[in-house]
């Protein structure tokens, strides 16, 4: 693409089209000066359509929009049989005048560059033109040959061919005069100075620019529409409307984080310009993730989702998710420069998740990157939940996660906060440890579960909900995450004094009823929040004196026991039960299992469970409670979620 400096306005469509073709097709080191005037000795000036300073010479190009059959001779020209002006004679005359002026300016030891005239016959934008030359050496060319003639040696009429030097080019420009001033004028649109062309397509340009109203400068982008360069006015009108729509969108989104400021449209009769403040930072394709800390990555994600939420709340979508259209600053600001509003909100969130997944994974925070994976698959579009999680993790404080896997043993530190002190129990796929919170110096419980990556979305949502609620008979979750370089997850919880209900050594009269009532209230509270335990079994009920607590939501001490209560039940009936009914079944079955002597248990299937219930004294048990438990074990309990669970079990508090 040649450097194009326009000294004046093209007088017709043929000139506009010809100048556009020459600028786009000529090499980068060529100079194209259009509508320039060559000064003469008498002080008058001769206008030249185009002056091309090329590799082999300086070409004075006269542009003609002739259409039809042109027969060009040395002296006379015919167009479809009619006499027309011999433009080559005029171009050659101007070339001789220019060559004379150059010889007077050439210093000793420097040769003047070769100057020659040339005619460019355009036809109708390259079509509907036939050319016949009486002599093949005449410098008259159609669009098919003009570029080759200006760039190859054979297009030169000089007897000796020498490349044009940089010094010769400089002398040509000095002879024309004020080239730098004209170039500066051409690159100025009001107070904006064009610096670098970033995009060029027929009629559409994007420029990096500076705003220079006074003694300071600011970087901007200029989106420029040149309607005259389109082949059809209808096409130009479509692009103009798109540019105006973009301006209206950016004005409507003014004040939203993530949306750069735009100035009013500029229209000067020849072009329509949309100035947009240059986004801060770098486009995502130039961002080095490895140089960012976990906190920086989390802050970038938080600001990105906040920006997207603000845009959606004003009724727009981004749509333009190309990596070079999303900018990120050193401070973590995120800006979108291609807001199209062309897709639905759900699709916008999916594309956002796809673009930012790599950043999310770099945080090594499963609670975060699992959301992005889910969103890409269409499993969630809850931006509020993501923003809340990001804020919580940033506020709580995390350390950059070490990339190597952690060996689970006494003394190991999990998540930089929890040191494993004592292994309490373990199974094939899980472990329960007593741990020490290093900063707070208090005891806590820490469970580790292996091979749960497939269940992560369910568990993540469950524990995110648990971390935001409080009930005295529900475990207090302190932290939840995935171990580095592993599919294992950990759950840190407040340390609960006591033992699993099936290992309590001494149960006093009245304690089981008290514990059962407490856990019923806990389940009712959870169920009203649409939270379900899903794995109630004796090992997940911790009892101590006058208090019982539900632990291990969603997972048991062994992953195979995730739905441990189901082994008590008829599989067919179990599959039809609701989640609330399953929790109640697990609670009743766990108490029956824990309180029944081993000699009366059998294999603890559904029939054995009911038989075990009947081994208890109905009067001691309480008739209403006994009947309610029997109906639960038989899957005949008509649960009413609006009534107190304790009341439905016949328990008077």
UniProtKB/TrEMBL annotation:
Superkingdom of origin: Bacteria
Pfam families found in the cross-reference section: NERD (PF08378)
Coiled coil start-end: none
Protein kinase domain ranges (all copies): 418-653
The keyword Plastid belongs to this UniProt entry's keyword annotation: no
Protein name per UniProt: Serine/threonine protein kinase
Ranges of residues in domain NERD: 10-121
Protein keywords: Kinase, Serine/threonine-protein kinase, Transferase
Lineage: Bacteria, Pseudomonadati, Pseudomonadota, Gammaproteobacteria, Alteromonadales
GO molecular function terms listed in the Swiss-Prot or TrEMBL record: ATP binding; protein serine/threonine kinase activity
The protein's Enzyme Commission number: 2.7.11.1
SUPFAM superfamilies (alphabetical): Protein kinase-like (PK-like) (SSF56112)
